Amino acid sequence: MTSFSTALTDALGIDIPILLAPMAGGPTTPELVSAVSDAGAFGQFGAAYLNGAAIRDMVGELQSRTNKGFGINLFVPEDPLVTEAEIAAATAAIAEYFAQFGVTPPDSVSNVMPDIEEQVEAVIEGGIKLSSFHLGHGSQPVIAEIKDAGIITAASATSVAEALEAEAAGIDFIIAQGSEAGGHRTTWIGDWQDSMTGTMSQITQLTNAVSTPIIAAGGIMDGRGLAAALALGACGVQMGTAFLTCPEADVHPSFQQALLNVEGDNTVMTRTFSGRPARGLRNRFITEMESSGAPVLPFPLQNTLTGSLRAAAGKVDDTDFMSMWCGQAAALSRGLPAAELIEQIVAEYQEAANSAFHSSIG
Fold first, then answer.
1. Is residue 15 part of a domain?
2. Using CB atoms within 10 A as the burial measure, which of 53, 288, 310, 350 is most buried?
3. Which of 161, 189, 191, 192 lies closest to 179, judged by CA?
4. Is residue 185 situated within a structural domain?
């Protein structure tokens, strides 16, 4: 049996250095998180859109499902300033789509993200194993409070500058988000377009720049990717797209089928659905919005604006208006239960490691 010993497995007390990516908004269900943890890896729940009370309820449900460790992920809040005229223009730009589904555009568009202080309080009360951050690293007082409670911290980074800042803030693990990754770019320093380094290059750059252990994320779908990341100096990997087609994930069946039907790379970076650059499957909404140059509100306001439209599309199985976030290697999706998928990844890792060993002495 394959045995791993890395900074990640040692810190979290897990057998396999794989983190479930905390995909907020539905995919990371209690069933998926607990299945990943029970299989020897580490489940994370994406709680970015949950308030403190909802996080407490979720932690309680997860603890009732598994006696293994798990993590909670939070978004560092953004509160952009926009004018009523900008909101009106962005709403008018997609009015025809609302009409197509018989949905009324929202009367107002506001920042509905929960209070991060309440979220952090709930995380600390839950006594969980890991608290991770996206879209930033959290303030130093928040990081200190979480660490004082005995909770390990992690934050995503897309550049050396971000990794250095996260390390200076006291973050325990840095998640190197490569350009291949699905979902929202975490970039918080500079322009996201200047921070699109591929995952494997990102590992080498960050391990040279910081002493904080690096977790690789982006385009890793199988044991070969795990082997490559560890060989380059990562202490583990974070995988999201690989788990989207698991039956335990709360992913629309049409989206899951689209992932299983992907050939090559049909993903694109877009701001059209949420207002923040994110990678997902290209569809009609993205193509038409980008070709028309329609105005887009900053995150999370655009996310609020398109919410009812995306929900309406889901009810009628119309993938042309769903935000189907996924990474560039989505074509390697398998549709397996989480435990079986992890078992296969470990077997593939061992095969890749053995092949590399024999090649080196052959």
1. yes
2. 310
3. 192
4. yes
- Tell me which DSSP letter residue 192 carries: G
Q: Number of H helices and number of E strands within the chain? A: 15, 11
- From CA 325, how far away is CA 28, in angstroms rounded? 13
18 Cβ contact partners less than 8 Å away, ≥ 6 residues apart = 36, 41, 42, 226, 236, 237, 238, 239, 342, 345
Domain containing 67 equals 7-78+113-251+330-361
Number of domains in the chain: 1
Report DSSP state, residue 332: G
Positions of E strands within 21-129? 43-46, 70-75
Task: Tell me the C-alpha distance between 270 and 323, whole Å.
Answer: 10
The CA distance from 8 to 104, in Å, is 47
324 falls within a domain = no
Question: What is the pTM assigned to this prediction?
Answer: 0.96
In whole angstroms, give the CA distance from residue 218 to residue 199: 6
CATH of the domain at 228: 3.20.20.70
Token readout for 83 is 């004018």
Question: Would you give the DSSP letter of residue 159?
Answer: S
271, part of any domain: no
| Mean pLDDT, the chain cut into blocks of 10 residues (362 residues total) | 92 98 95 98 97 97 97 94 95 97 91 93 96 94 96 98 98 98 97 97 98 98 98 98 98 98 96 98 98 96 96 97 98 98 98 75 54
